[in-house]
Each structure stands twice: as C-alpha cells, then as structure tokens.
Amino acid sequence: MCKPLKILISDDSMLLRKKLREELEMLGCQVVEAKDGQEVVEAYAKFRPDGVFMDIVMPKVGGLAALKEIKEIDKQARVVMLSSTGTAAKLLEALKLGAIDFIQKPYNSSQIAKAVNDIGRKEN
Question: In this structure, which CATH number among 1.10.10.10, 3.30.70.100, 3.30.470.20, 3.40.50.2300 belongs to the domain 6-121?
C-alpha cells in the first residue's frame, strides 16, 4: 500500500474521538486530534492532513465555520462532516462549503472505510 493517510479528527466528545481514532488506525491511517473548531483549523494549518473528519456542533468555532476556514487555507481540503443533528439544511450547507461527504452519527465502520477510500482516491 501507499504511504498511510494522515487524518485529522475533530469532535468535542473524547469518547467519539477515541472510537474514531481506533477505527482509522485499523484502516492504516495516522491520526491527529482536535477537540473543537478552533483547534481543528490550527491543526489543519500546521499538519496539512490528507483528510478531516469533523463534527458540526462544537464549542468555540462550529464545524461549518471551521470548514469554511479550512477551505480558505486549502481549497483542495478533503473534509467529511459528522453530525448527530443532521438536518437537510446543514447537509446542504456543508456540501456547498466544500465537504466531500456527510455522515450521520452514530456511524458504522463501512461508512468510515468508504470515506477514507474517497479521501485516498483524491490523492494525487
């Protein structure tokens, strides 16, 4: 396989970050974590990951605002939004802002594997 994908995950739930980290590491990814929207933007600028899994509802800076900032840093950023409060309006806004996918929580392993595959396919 090629070099492992570097994935940044951001969620204010430590439990969800732990579960998602384990899931991604089983898929061979290197994982960096952020606990809120402000941290995820700073971590993106510093680490330039291959992809991001990010919650929509977070303290300090929400996921949609963080997505917008990440896209200003890197127009090619590959961001997958996660949310338990998935409304059609939020889904649409996330996709308009440039998210490549939107996963409803609770997610399953195959959804994460598909998203990682999509992130990897866009690698050049």
Answer: 3.40.50.2300
